[in-house]
Structures are given as structure tokens and as C-alpha cells.
């Protein structure tokens, strides 16, 4: 199982930070359950038991389980293409969760924060993390994308921000829309593209300049040095 996962991830030409995320998935939710079982031995029932194990034993959220299942199914698709197995057992699994239903339920209760509420959150945050929160609020970045931003992705003169493709923190890849996004991102990576470009609002640019000057970095994979 480990060898197949590593072959699959290596051929995808992932960034180092993304490779670490894939390695974490392997170490925490695949190897502990499947252990040394070969890919060719897996049946639909095995994958269903794995999903139950992640829910009951590991207490993972439905969102995280969907992410793990999506990546695992991607590996199995790769194994089919490379004639390692005849079919992908994940295709007949019904216990991976209903993302569309969850989105509808969430939208029915969710509301958009007001500008005053957003500013209050930013003011209350530790100074070291405010720039990251400004990126999320002002540029529409997800947590994983904001944490991974480096200095060379920021274009102050052009007022743009290049966002490298990352594994989304929530792993939302099951719905048709998000599956299509994932396919476009995978194709873009294969063609040598590094990400997408987002506008950089003046207030966000101001906060980034101040942050770089005072802190230089906010996380393990963030800004590397002050400028």
C-alpha cells in the first residue's frame, strides 16, 4: 500500500509542502488501517470498513473523511490506469458522505460576517497572524493557501498575489463543482502552471508590507525573510 501511494504522489509533480500533506495522510489514516496489504487485495468492503474506522476510531470529521477518501480513490484510479488492479473498489462505496447535502444544510444556517465583525477579529488576533487573516479576508484565500504564501508570490507593484495550488484544508473534492476544480488544478500542474492569481487590495498590501517588515514569517511554510 505504501509503495503504491508513494508512486502515485511522486508522478503528480507536487510541491514539497503538498507532498508533506500527502505523507501525513499516509502515516495517519492509511498505513495504520491497511498496514502492509497490497492494493490488489482490496475489496469494496475493505474501503467501507476503513471509512467506519476513520469515523469511529479516529473520530475524524465528515469533511476530513471525504478528503482522505477522495485522495485514496485517486490513487486507486491511478492503479487502474497503470494496470495494477482491474477496477477501483472506491467507485462502489456508498459511505463516503453526501457533500452536496452538507453544503445545503450549511448554507441554510450560515451568514456572512459584517465588515465590523471581520475587523474585530483581525484586531483581536495576535500581530504575528494578522497578515495571514488579511489574506484570507481580502483575497479569498483558504487557510492552507494563506499559510503557504511566500514573499515571491506577492506582486506589490502589480497589486496581485499568485496562489500556488495546495491541498485544500477541508478536502472538498466530492461535489461535481469541486471535482472539476481539482481536475483543472491537476491539469494545470501537469502543464507546468504553478497556481492562480488573485487581486491584492491596497489595505491587504499595506498589512503585508508591515508584517514583512516586523515579522518576516508567520509559519513553517510562510514568508522566509523580512524585506
Quick structural summary:
With 227 residues, the protein is mostly helical. It is built from 10 helices and 3 strands, in the order ααααααααββαβα. It has helices at 2-10, 16-34, 44-56, 62-81, 99-109, 115-124, 127-139, 143-147, 176-190, 202-214, and strands at residues 154-155, 160-164, 195-199.
Oligomeric state of shown chains: single chain
**Cα-to-Cα separation, first versus last residue:** 45 Å
Reported for the largest beta sheet, the result is: 3 strands, antiparallel
Relative strand content: 5-15%
The H/E string reads: HHHHHHHHEEHEH
Question: Tally the helices: what do you get?
Answer: 10
Describe the model.
The protein is mostly helical. Helices cover 56% and strands 5% of the residues. It has 10 helices and 3 strands; from the N terminus they run H-H-H-H-H-H-H-H-E-E-H-E-H. The protein has helices at 2-10, 16-34, 44-56, 62-81, 99-109, 115-124, 127-139, 143-147, 176-190, 202-214, and strands spanning 154-155, 160-164, 195-199. A 3-stranded antiparallel β-sheet has the order 1-2-3. A hairpin with a 4-residue loop joins strand 1 and strand 2. Helix 1 runs antiparallel to helix 2. It is elongated and about 55 Å long. The relative contact order is 0.12.
Amino acid at each position: 500500500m505504501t509503495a503504491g501511494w508513494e508512486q502515485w504522489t511522486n508522478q503528480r509533480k507536487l510541491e514539497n509542502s503538498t507532498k508533506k500533506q500527502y505523507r501525513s495522510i499516509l502515516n495517519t489514516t492509511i498505513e495504520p488501517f491497511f498496514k502492509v496489504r497490497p492494493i490488489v487485495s482490496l475489496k469494496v468492503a475493505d474501503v467501507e470498513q476503513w471509512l467506519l474506522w476513520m469515523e469511529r476510531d479516529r473520530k475524524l470529521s465528515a469533511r476530513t473523511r471525504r478528503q482522505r477518501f477522495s485522495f485514496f480513490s485517486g490513487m486507486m484510479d491511478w492503479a487502474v490506469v497503470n494496470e495494477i488492479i482491474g477496477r477501483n473498489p472506491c467507485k462502489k462505496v456508498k459511505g463516503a458522505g453526501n457533500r452536496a447535502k452538507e453544503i445545503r444544510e450549511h448554507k441554510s444556517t450560515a451568514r456572512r460576517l459584517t465588515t465590523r465583525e471581520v475587523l474585530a477579529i483581525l484586531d483581536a488576533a495576535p500581530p504575528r497572524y494578522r497578515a495571514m487573516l488579511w489574506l484570507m479576508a481580502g483575497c479569498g484565500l483558504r487557510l492552507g493557501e494563506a499559510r503557504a504564501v511566500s514573499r515571491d508570490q506577492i506582486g506589490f507593484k502589480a497589486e496581485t498575489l499568485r496562489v500556488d495550488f495546495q491541498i485544500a484544508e477541508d478536502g472538498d473534492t466530492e461535489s461535481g463543482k469541486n471535482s472539476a476544480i481539482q481536475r483543472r488544478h491537476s491539469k494545470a500542474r501537469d502543464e507546468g502552471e504553478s497556481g492562480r492569481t488573485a487581486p491584492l487590495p491596497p489595505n491587504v498590501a499595506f498589512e503585508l508590507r508591515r508584517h514583512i517588515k516586523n515579522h518576516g514569517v508567520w509559519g513553517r511554510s510562510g514568508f522566509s525573510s523580512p524585506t
